[in-house]
Amino acid sequence: MKIEATAVIMAGGKSLRMGFDKQEIKINEKNLVHIQADILGEIFNEVIIISNKPELYKNYHLNVYKDMIKDQGPLGGIHSALVNSSNYYNYFIACDMPNINTEYIKYIYEIIFEDKSKNGIVAKLNDWIEPFNSFYTKNLIESIEIHLKNGKRSVFSLLKKNKIIYLEEEAVREFSSDWSMFDNLNTHHELSEYYLKI
């Protein structure tokens, strides 16, 4: 039985360090976003893509949404996803994160599903918060809109204002001892290193 939640692939960003649009990263000749969508589609009842280049996905079967509030970075994409998704609970991953751990996803979903008072669950490494590979609820929509209206674009400062579950490092490493499920492919070097591992 699939999770009653939406998986969101965040395919925005300027990709400056990579030198080409990270939405077009390919792994074994297949677009990474499509690989992510196939994996997530096995466990979620809905998968959507947030991208300001929907033409890249015209031959794919997923709904693609642009940022509703333009030029606001990841928070603008999170806002658009929460508004357009069909579910209260929403899982977020970036399009350059190749290591999806479905057991971890199910684990954190169960935690936030059991605690209806919280609006998100994120992993924490010392003082660092991982904004993706996380769940957020539709309850954050209004808070994000106020945050952006006040000229604030930081996901971290938004989370501090809301009721969020912070999953401590020890619990997270039970699923990813080397923290690799949070890896991003930001540069050609990182992409080359990833190719060597697979």
From TrEMBL:
Enzyme Commission number(s) of this protein: 2.7.7.77
Stored Gene3D superfamilies: Spore Coat Polysaccharide Biosynthesis Protein SpsA, Chain A
Main location class: cytoplasm
The MobA-like NTP transferase domain, residue ranges: 7-157
UniProt-annotated binding residues for GTP: 22, 67, 96
Keywords of this entry: Cytoplasm, GTP-binding, Magnesium, Metal-binding, Molybdenum cofactor biosynthesis, Nucleotide-binding, Nucleotidyltransferase, Transferase
Keyword Repeat part of the UniProt annotation: no
Membrane-spanning ranges: none
BP term (GO), one: Mo-molybdopterin cofactor biosynthetic process
Enzyme class name: transferase
Residues holding Mg(2+): 96
UniProt GO cellular component terms: cytoplasm
Catalytic activity: Mo-molybdopterin + GTP + H(+) = Mo-molybdopterin guanine dinucleotide + diphosphate
InterPro entries (alphabetical): MobA-like_NTP_Trfase (IPR025877), Molybde_CF_guanTrfase (IPR013482), Nucleotide-diphossugar_trans (IPR029044)
CDD domains: MobA
Its job: Transfers a GMP moiety from GTP to Mo-molybdopterin (Mo-MPT) cofactor (Moco or molybdenum cofactor) to form Mo-molybdopterin guanine dinucleotide (Mo-MGD) cofactor.
Family named by the database record: Belongs to the MobA family.
Domains as described in the record: The N-terminal domain determines nucleotide recognition and specific binding, while the C-terminal domain determines the specific binding to the target protein.
Name of the molecule in the record: Probable molybdenum cofactor guanylyltransferase
